[in-house]
Design a protein that fits this description.
With about 230 residues, the protein is mainly alpha-helical. The chain folds into two domains: about 45 residues, no CATH class; about 170 residues, no CATH class. The chain has nine helices and two strands; from the N terminus they run ββααααααααα. Strands 1-2 form a two-stranded antiparallel sheet. Strand 1 and strand 2 form a beta hairpin. Helix 2 runs parallel beside helix 4. The structure holds zinc ion (ZN) (2 copies). One zinc ion (ZN) binds next to helix 1.
């Protein structure tokens, strides 16, 4: 039986060692290893969706939130276009902010961020003019400023962050691409945090999925590499 790496597609070799899991960064017993060092531990392989996001964000030392998102989206559980993407933005941004030393990630913060954004249904970009990724921009700003519905400036900033992300996604045109929406939103978040909250968080999204996406907009997408 031949197995292939979920990260890079190379053929896995049979081993009997411990290795660092690419998803959670924990050292675990490994029976198969990619020649490039990629390895998925049993717990990450068996994790369901919110758990995958949590495991990657907790273990990550990556400073670019787009790279954290790309790793999560390479998990075998990940579907090309799906509501799974709706919980990504706050989780990867909070993780990247911790990794750059800008903000600590307190216990329970990740879970509560995921809780805020889960439950946004499939396809709402088309059915009600909303996008789960874009709403994640408002969620991040709300968490960082402590916004609630009774606040003044903080509430406006959260609404504005979601609105800016929605505008970027609207201007990119359809059909929907959840990868593109995540990347566009991360760029909006990066500019927004710098401009409004003086928080530096750089990101340079690169699409690792266009070859596997039969609906890729190709030249109509800024993240497509021909
Ligand atoms: Zn690999
Ligand atoms: Zn793992």
């Amino acid at each position: 039986m031949t197995y292939f790496c979920v990260i890079c597609g190379e053929e896995l070799s049979q081993v009997d060692i411990t290795a660092i899991c690419t998803f959670c960064q924990q050292e675990k017993p490994a029976l198969y290893l990619c020649p490039k060092g990629h390895f998925t531990c049993d717990d990450c392989q068996l994790a369901d969706w919110p758990e995958v996001v949590k495991r990657v964000c907790e273990g990550s030392r990556e400073k670019d939130p787009a790279k954290i998102a790309n790793l999560i989206m390479k998990h075998p559980m990940s579907i090309m276009h799906s509501p799974q993407h709706h919980i990504l933005i706050p989780a990867v941004v909070l993780s990247a902010l911790r990794n750059t030393g800008i903000r600590p990630l307190n216990p329970g913060r990740l879970e509560s961020a995921i809780e805020r954004t889960k439950g946004i249904p499939l396809g709402v970009c088309g059915t009600r003019g909303e996008c789960g990724a874009a709403i994640g921009a408002g969620t991040v700003v709300s968490i960082l400023t402590g916004a609630t519905f009774t606040k003044d400036r903080e509430r406006s900033l959260a609404l504005r962050a979601s609105a800016e992300a929605l505008m970027a996604i609207a201007e990119a045109g359809g059909p929907r691409c959840c990868k593109q929406s995540v990347y566009l939103t991360l760029e909006v978040v990066s500019h927004f945090l710098q401009r409004e909250l003086n928080i530096p968080l750089s990101t340079a999204p690169q699409c690792d999925f266009y070859r596997r996406n039969p609906e890729c907009k190709k030249e109509r997408c800024k993240y497509y590499v021909s």
